[in-house]
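Thread amino acids onto this structure.
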């Protein structure tokens, strides 16, 4: 950022420099985090946030076995290489592709017993002999859009290889909705600065994470991002 003023132009430039076909970053989760960086760079997100999961909905049903699947999901908390399983929503029944979708609703006890914050990975699996992974999604709770939900189509789910199944396993029009509620009714990552977070949020998020955000903000403030003129010097011989 600096030479280009938005993530889309950065991605196009990188793609054309990396491959003649223009394909650069293609993994959905990597793309999601690049747009997170843009939001952080523009100071649209001011602080980390904690959330609670309300439920998940599939529109359309994957075909993992016998024209449907027996879905369940696992939630992992991710701090670098420290990845820990936080919750498992058990398989309930076989869903057929003739049905309109799948709904996972959490009980009040499940919601209150699990707070999500920071980087989170959800693995969706098909219950069977090997509990095969259907797809996965990774996100950061600070960047969940207003309205407290994530909407992801097939092209926004990982791994990238699910796009190559010719829609035989994952329907082309499959959509995943992940619904959340706020851990705190006072603090808001779009408006609340780190130093203004309430004590409940400070305790839930933790000083280690807060200090990481402070350091990242300081780096962004102090870094001398290149303007167009300097960008041309740095990219001498390259046509953006």
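Threaded sequence (240 positions):
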């Amino acid at each position: 950022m600096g030479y280009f003023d938005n993530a889309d132009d950065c991605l196009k430039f990188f793609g054309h420099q990396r491959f003649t076909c223009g394909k650069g970053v293609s993994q959905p989760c990597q793309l999601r985090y690049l747009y997170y960086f843009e939001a952080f760079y523009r100071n649209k997100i001011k602080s980390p946030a904690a959330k609670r999961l309300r439920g998940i909905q599939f529109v359309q049903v994957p075909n993992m076995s016998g024209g449907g699947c027996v879905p369940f999901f696992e939630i992992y908390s991710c701090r670098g290489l420290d990845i820990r399983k936080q919750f498992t929503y058990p398989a309930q029944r076989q869903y057929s592709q003739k049905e309109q979708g799948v709904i996972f609703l959490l009980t009040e006890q499940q919601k209150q017993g699990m707070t999500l914050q920071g980087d989170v990975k959800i693995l969706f699996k098909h219950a069977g002999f090997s509990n095969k992974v259907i797809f996965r999604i990774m996100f950061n709770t600070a960047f969940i859009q207003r309205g407290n939900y994530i909407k992801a189509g097939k092209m926004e789910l990982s791994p990238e290889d699910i796009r190559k199944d010719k829609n035989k396993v994952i329907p082309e029009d499959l959509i995943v909705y992940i619904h959340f509620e706020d851990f705190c009714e006072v603090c808001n990552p779009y408006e609340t600065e780190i130093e203004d977070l309430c004590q409940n949020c400070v305790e839930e998020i933790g000083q280690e994470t807060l200090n990481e955000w402070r350091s990242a903000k300081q780096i962004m403030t102090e870094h001398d991002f290149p303007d167009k003129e300097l960008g041309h010097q740095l990219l001498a011989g390259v046509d953006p």
